[in-house]
Each structure stands twice: as structure tokens, then as C-alpha cells.
């Protein structure tokens, strides 16, 4: 069973991602509501995949991505973004993301992105 | 070149929703309230909702319904569209949601500022309006000014003087 860490400052959005993934057998190993918590939980929980919101207070998703990539180059990270965050998305792509999901999204898109990320990782082992 | 006389400063008080065009400026003082700026860069149009509480549930006869996130944000969106804004152009910036009274919490970690922020984000998501930037949380109040010329949201607080998002 693949494990997922969900990072988003909005509770309803974390629930939306959780509700999309759990029926497909993914285990939500943790949730983080800010950037600092995300980095801490990534280190503690060692998830298989991370879903990461961009716009968060204090430490945004781009900073979180950079900090995680300093420690781990290969863990799949899926950014969740609004359509107009082009500049942030370019930064994210340079830092290395696996995929991105544009808000508002449907559940199938989340499941498909996480499934592909997991398959790609397994293929690389 | 614009002089100060050309720029009208509109103060948006608790529970109010205001709309204006460039070069005007919308201003609010926020504690646990959330200032929600929705704008259309093409039409040079923008508004600010000064959200005081998350939801109107249980407050049906309220005199100022726009103090609730679930009413104020659709109201502001509708006003934007009515005055020439286009749904596809709409974007949002938000500020506020501080924990001003650290001893008053609904549940651990859940004060009114957090609940306001959650309701604001949900309402914007439901209306398909992307949040471009935020300056939220903390324990300090904020004075915010939304400049319709630049769509900069300028924030003054004890910890972030002159911050622009």
C-alpha cells in the first residue's frame, strides 16, 4: 500500500484529496497545514508520495519543495496549483516536480496523478 | 501622472463589501477578520470583502449578511460580474485571519481567524477563483490597502511593515 502526505493549509482541501485517494487504496500517512510542518512530517513519516499546495502562509509550497529536494531528489511530489500561478509553476518545475493538478480538480485527476507517480517510482527501482 | 487627489481611498468596514476601479484604493483594518480582494486585471476592476465570521448558518435574520464569508464572497463576485468583470479573469488575494485573542479558541488550534480563513478559501474554491497570494494567520492585526492600479495588496503589521503581496 502506497503512503501519501497531504500538504495544504485548508482543511477542506486536505479532506478533498484524502477522500479522493483512500477509496483507491492509498494510505494517508499524514497531513500538514503549513510548510514547516510539511518538512517535519516528510522527515518523520517517509511517505511514498507528497501532494503539495503552492499558496500557504509563512513557508509556501515552493520553499517546501526546495527543502525536500535538498534531502531527497526522487520522492514524487505533485503540486496542487491555481491556474494563474504560472511563475510559481515554472520555479516548481525547475526544482523538480513529478506532476501538477490544477484547481478546481475532480477526484479522478488526483487518483491518476498519484497512481502514475507511484508507478514511475516503482519502475525506477 | 496621477496626483493624490485623483486616487479615492475607500475604507471597507467590518462586514462591508466594496467595489471600485483603478486608480482607487480599498483599505481595511483586520484582526481575526479576513480581507478578500477579488480583481479583474483586464477590466481594472476590484473589490474587497471584510469578512467577520465564517458562515451565516443560524444567523438568518442578520442585518449585515455580508459579514459572513459564505455570503460576502459570492456577493462580491456577482458585483464584479455586474460591473463588467469576467469570471475567467477573476483572481483573489487574501489577508488577515489572525489569532487576536489567544485564550478564545473553539477547539485547540481553531480560533475564529482560522475558521474565517477556511471558509474564505472554500468559498473561493467553489466559485473557481484562484488565490494568487496570502498574508494570513499570526497574532497581529493588519492594515491592508488594495491598489487598483497595480493590484498590489500592501500590508502593514508589527511583523511585516510595507509587505506587498
The strand count of chain A comes to 5
The percent range for helix content of chain A is 40-55%
Helix and strand run of chain B: EEEEEHEHEEEE
In the CATH hierarchy, the third-tier topology of chain B is known as: 60s Ribosomal Protein L30, Chain: A
Helical coverage of chain B, percent range: 10-25%
Task: Please give the alpha-carbon distance between the first and last residues of chain A.
Answer: 16 Å
The topology string of helices and strands of chain A comes to EHEHEHEHEH
Rg of chain B, rounded, reads 15 Å
Write down the overall mean pLDDT of chain A: 91
pLDDT averaged over residues of chain B: 90
Question: Which descriptor suits the 3D outline of chain A?
Answer: globular
Provide the gyration radius of chain A in Å.
13 Å
Biggest β-sheet: strands ordered side by side in the sheet of chain B: 1-3-8-9-10
Secondary structure class of chain A reads: alpha/beta
The domain tally of chain A reads 1
For the termini of chain B, the CA-CA separation is 24 Å
> Do you know the CATH topology of chain A?
Rossmann fold
Q: Roughly what fraction of the amino acids of chain B lie in strands?
A: 25-35%
Strand order of the largest sheet of chain A: 2-1-3-4-5
Approximately how much beta-strand content do the residues of chain A carry?
15-25%
Keywords:
heterodimer; A: 125 residues; alpha/beta; Rossmann fold; 5 helices; B: 165 residues; alpha+beta; 60s Ribosomal Protein L30, Chain: A; 5-stranded mixed β-sheet; 2 helices; globular
Structure described in brief:
With 125 residues, chain A is of the alpha/beta class. Chain A has helices at residues 11-21, 35-45, 61-71, 86-95, 107-124; strands at 3-7, 27-32, 49-53, 77-82, 99-103.
What report would you give on this structure?
The complex is a heterodimer of chains A (125) and B (165). By secondary structure, chain A is of the alpha/beta class. Chain A has a single domain, classed as 3-Layer(aba) Sandwich (Rossmann fold). Helix content of chain A is 49%, strand content 22%. In chain A, helix 1 crosses helix 5 and helix 2 runs parallel beside helix 3. The longest helix of chain A has 18 residues. Chain A is globular and about 30 Å long. Chain A starts with a strand and ends with a helix. The mean pLDDT of chain A is 91. With 165 residues, chain B is an alpha+beta fold. Chain B has one domain: 60s Ribosomal Protein L30, Chain: A, CATH 3.30.1330. Helices cover 18% and strands 32% of the residues of chain B. Chain B has a five-stranded mixed sheet with strand order 1-3-8-9-10, with no helix packed on it. The longest helix of chain B is centred in the C-terminal third of the chain and has 15 residues. The two termini of chain B are 24 Å apart. The mean pLDDT of chain B is 90. The interface between A and B is medium-sized, with 15 and 15 residues.
Amino acid at each position: 500500500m502506497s503512503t501519501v502526505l497531504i500538504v495544504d493549509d485548508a482543511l477542506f482541501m486536505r479532506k478533498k484529496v484524502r477522500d479522493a485517494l483512500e477509496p483507491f487504496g492509498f494510505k494517508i500517512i499524514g497531513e500538514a497545514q503549513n510548510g514547516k510542518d510539511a518538512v517535519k512530517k516528510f522527515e518523520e513519516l517517509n511517505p511514498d508520495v507528497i501532494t503539495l499546495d503552492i499558496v500557504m502562509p509563512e513557508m509556501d509550497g515552493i520553499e517546501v519543495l526546495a527543502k525536500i529536494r535538498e534531502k531527497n531528489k526522487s520522492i514524487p511530489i505533485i503540486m496542487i496549483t491555481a491556474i494563474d500561478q504560472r511563475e510559481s509553476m515554472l520555479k516548481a518545475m525547475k526544482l523538480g516536480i513529478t506532476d501538477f493538478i490544477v484547481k478546481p480538480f475532480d477526484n479522478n485527476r488526483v487518483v491518476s496523478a498519484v497512481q502514475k507517480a507511484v508507478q514511475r517510482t516503482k519502475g525506477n527501482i | 501622472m496621477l496626483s493624490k487627489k485623483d486616487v479615492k481611498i475607500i475604507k471597507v468596514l467590518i462586514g462591508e463589501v466594496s467595489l471600485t476601479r483603478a486608480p482607487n484604493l480599498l483599505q481595511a483594518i483586520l484582526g481575526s477578520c479576513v480581507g478578500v480582494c477579488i480583481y479583474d486585471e483586464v477590466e481594472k476592476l476590484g473589490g474587497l470583502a471584510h469578512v467577520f465570521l465564517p458562515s451565516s448558518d443560524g444567523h438568518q435574520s442578520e442585518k449585515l449578511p455580508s459579514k459572513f464569508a459564505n455570503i460576502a464572497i459570492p456577493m462580491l463576485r456577482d458585483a464584479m460580474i455586474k460591473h463588467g468583470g469576467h469570471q475567467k479573469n477573476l483572481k483573489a488575494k487574501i489577508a488577515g485571519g489572525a489569532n487576536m485573542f489567544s485564550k478564545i479558541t473553539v477547539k485547540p488550534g481553531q480560533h475564529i481567524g482560522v475558521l474565517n480563513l477556511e471558509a474564505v478559501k472554500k468559498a473561493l474554491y467553489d466559485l473557481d477563483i484562484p488565490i494568487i497570494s496570502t498574508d494570513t494567520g499570526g497574532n497581529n492585526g493588519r492594515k491592508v490597502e488594495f491598489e487598483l492600479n497595480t493590484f498590489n495588496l500592501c500590508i502593514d503589521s508589527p511583523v511585516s511593515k510595507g509587505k506587498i503581496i
